[in-house]
Amino acid sequence: xxxxxxxxxxxxxxxxNFSRAAEMLNLSQPGVSxxxxxxxxxFGTKLMHRSPKQVKLTEAGELLYKRAKxxxxxxxxAKQDIHRLHDTVTGSLLIGASFxxxxxxxxxxxxxxxxxxxxxxxxxxxxNSEEIIQAIQENxxxxxxxxxxxxxxxxxxxTFMKDELIIVAAAxxxxxxxxxxxxxxxxxxxxxxxxxxSGTRAFSDQFIQQAALKVKRSYIFNSSQGVKEAVAAGLGxxxxxxxxxxxxxxxxxxxxxxxxxIRIERNFSLIRTADSITTMAMDVFxxxxxxxxxxx
Length: 296
Fold this sequence. Notes:
Blueprint: H1 2-15, H2 18-25, H3 29-43, E1 48-50, E2 55-57, H4 59-86, E3 91-98, H5 99-104, H6 106-116, E4 120-127, H7 129-137, E5 143-147, E6 155-170, E7 189-194, H8 199-210, E8 215-221, H9 224-232, E9 238-241, H10 242-250, E10 254-256, E11 264-273, H11 280-290
Parallel strand pairs: 3-4, 3-5, 7-8
Antiparallel strand pairs: 1-2, 5-11, 6-9, 6-10, 6-11
């Protein structure tokens, strides 16, 4: 099979040695040489310069090595997908998510996952980012989905999408009449914010600090819904994910305050303990998370 021959070729290229490659592949050295010779005959060109001490790829060999890696990767992915057609994904899945992700992104994803894998028992915990991170560290959750940057050595962290944060106000707010503004217009404003430990609060504080804004007063709410309602009632400005306020912007209950040439973004990340032993349910769900853009 050509896949096996390509695997032999890649192993020889990476080991730069026929003997080591043969040992790793559990093949005889003549068997390895035969695979390489067959490849060279098929392509009609020399793929490797051989010497007693080392093997070096030719220009054609370098090109084939790159393509062979891609082919082998695609082959393994296809093999896993086909196996999953016949394997039943079962077990339990303990998911934790920050409020923005848990309330505005996960519901549709979990619904589709549950429809395809009905034998998986799913439990969802929603909290602020700090609470979810702590629960993962204490092995109380299998997978966590949080906002912002996470840099902890005991966690495996992978970013699965970007989130845009925007400034919103009530429709009648004086700043709503300005099409695009500089940050100095935001001095001496009232801000409505999430609680400490929230990923949204962390970015709100960071923005205010970096822009050196003078804050007239702040009001704290422990949910995005509370922040939205307070802003719509005219209490002040807020920085929230565009996902969170999409409906309110469409209904004109809130308006976006656009900043001139400034875009506020953060990461949405999937976190697990660095040494976690994954189940098929965890792996399949993680794949769905990384494909989340297709669902939104």
